[in-house]
Amino acid sequence: MTNPDHLIRPDAPVLYWRDGAIAHLRFNRPQVLNAIDLATAQCFRTTCDRIADDRNIRAVVISAEGRAFMAGGDLAAMRADPVTTARALIESMHSGISVLASLDAPVIASVHGAVAGGGLGLLLGCDLAIAAEGTRFNLAYLNVGASSDCSTSWGLPRLVGLRKAMEIALLGGTFGAAEALLLGIVNRVVPLEQLHQESEAMAGKLAHGPTRALGRLKRLLRDSAQRSLDEHLAAEAEAFLECAASRDFSEGVDAFIERRTPRFQGT
């Protein structure tokens, strides 16, 4: 971490800090491969709320400590009272994922090691994803007699198509980073030692962009499958006019005419 601001206590299950306009959310239970227990889910939700309340944030990077991004839910924590524990855990995780999806700031998943269960759902819910070479992906739910959560069944068919999503979900096989790249589950695959650098570079590029326009564009793309063409044309028009009223649009037009690089402020 470089010059972290607003760091949650270092033993928290989710760490948060901000480097300039880039927010970092990092899962911090490496001893159990960052498996999600109730405390982790609740900390994730409050951290997402904190990010949403900070208007200075213009990009978000989600990562994890240790050997893996996330092994899914903490089954040992659910064993005594699975229904009550799962309900509370899912409520917090789903709330946080919904908050991240609503941000204007783009959200990047930076993953390595194992990405399973809810970890895969969280990745699918992000706007962009970078994986380290050697990363392994598995839906994993059926191994314990469960269906999915964390938006997995929403994001997976949208990225890979229904038939491939059925294969991944129902047959439960593990696949690697190269296949994840071919399927469109991740955007880039890089050597493990370059993962942090590449994630920071992508976040930095986005953090210098027109944040309001980025937010409108990512929501248009996310919502396109639910609308008719006419409905989507209307939504595009509304979003463009909102952008046209922004300072960043004026700066972009001026920069284009003056043949210089625009200096967007996210407003």
What would you say this structure looks like, in words?
- By secondary structure, the protein is an alpha/beta fold.
- It folds into 2 domains: 14-207, 2-enoyl-CoA Hydratase, Chain A, domain 1 (Alpha-Beta Complex); 211-257, Lyase 2-enoyl-coa Hydratase, Chain  A, domain 2 (Orthogonal Bundle), CATH 1.10.12.
- The protein has helices at 38-53, 75-78, 82-102, 118-125, 152-160, 162-171, 177-183, 195-207, 211-223, 229-244, 247-257; strands spanning 14-19, 22-27, 59-64, 107-111, 114-116, 128-132, 136-138, 175-176, 188-190.
- It has a 6-stranded mixed β-sheet, with helices on both faces.
- A hairpin with a 2-residue loop joins strand 1 (14-19) and strand 2 (22-27).
- Helix 1 (38-53) packs parallel to helix 3 (82-102), helix 4 (118-125) packs across helix 5 (152-160) and helix 5 (152-160) packs across helix 6 (162-171).
- The model has no long low-confidence stretch (mean pLDDT 93).
Give the key terms.
267 residues; 2-enoyl-CoA Hydratase, Chain A, domain 1; Lyase 2-enoyl-coa Hydratase, Chain  A, domain 2; 2 domains; 11 helices; globular
